[in-house]
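Issue 218. Parser rejects a valid record. Input:
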Amino acid sequence: MDRSAAALEIAREVGFDLAGVAPVRPPQAASLFDAWLAQGRHGGMTWLERNRDRIVDPRRVMPAGRSLLVVGLAHARAAVATPDGGRVARYAAGRDYHNVMGRMLMKLARGLRAAGLVGRSRRIVDAGPLLERSHAAEAGLGFESKAANLLHPSFGPWFFLGELILDVELEPTTWAPAGSCGTCTACLDACPTGAIVSPGEVDARTCISYQTIENQGAVPAELREKIGDWAFGCDVCSEICPWGSRAGDHAARFGTHPVIESAGLVEWVEAGESLAERLGGSPLQRPHRAGLARNAAIVLGNRPSDAGRVALLHALTFDPSEVVREAAAWSLAQAHGSDAQTRAALERAARLDPSETARDAIRDWRANCS
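Output the parser choked on:
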């Protein structure tokens, strides 16, 4: 067994479903990434610009790197929702994959060293500076799709990627899983906000996942109804993809976080910092307490309920975040604008909210009440 094959075998023994080797060099998507940045389609993710050189060229991440060992871990599961119907992206339902895969990559690195295959390595999971989908495609883990994700014949889009940059030169794996998007445009047609602006290109600024996870400010008004039930992330393009239909169920690997099973949207709005504390080890920590409350408030505007109305009225006056108060105002006007008490509360908030920005927005939502 050659060194590359031995490394892949150890990766499988650790528990990864997919593994391949790519050269340490700028991947094929480097020029596309530059064009994407130039068009501002990364939204507020300014760290992508700041780290552009490291993202494009893995040799800047680890100058001693000679090979890139790319691994995949399947995470398919049934659709996920809170008890009152707030949708959560499937990948975020259980333990944070950064932690799970990080530990597995550490174990893989130890196994490679023990076998005498490598000396030094650098592990990366998602947030690290790599164009990992392009590297993974070069390593044979799948093909890049029109939804700008990676597809595999067995796992569809439902798998995580991770990498080890190694200080030894391994033979690249050149196989490519059979398949392509062909003439299918299901993901482009189904995207609620039209964020997939062309095959393989997503504008983060209109993507529900970006708005509910990465955006720390107010969600653009024109996107709020289109968010629908999505309280965290969005799986529409993956759910509609024909390649994902045979992916199986790997929920047991990551479990389901107790907060998702027990806490509904109303509690997301009302719980305050206690909710963030209860979300230890969950990807739902990413948008922080205010981001989750903002998201839940918007969904409550799209899914009206008496309990939701009470929670929104309380948030309108008492939430410490102007982003949450403004989202609560929009939802109250959207879902309960015909109610006299609601209109009175909005009128009061439009005069008394401590933020001028929030007052202006609340005044607009109040004017839209039926």
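Fixed in the parser; the record now loads. The longest helix spans residues 97-114.
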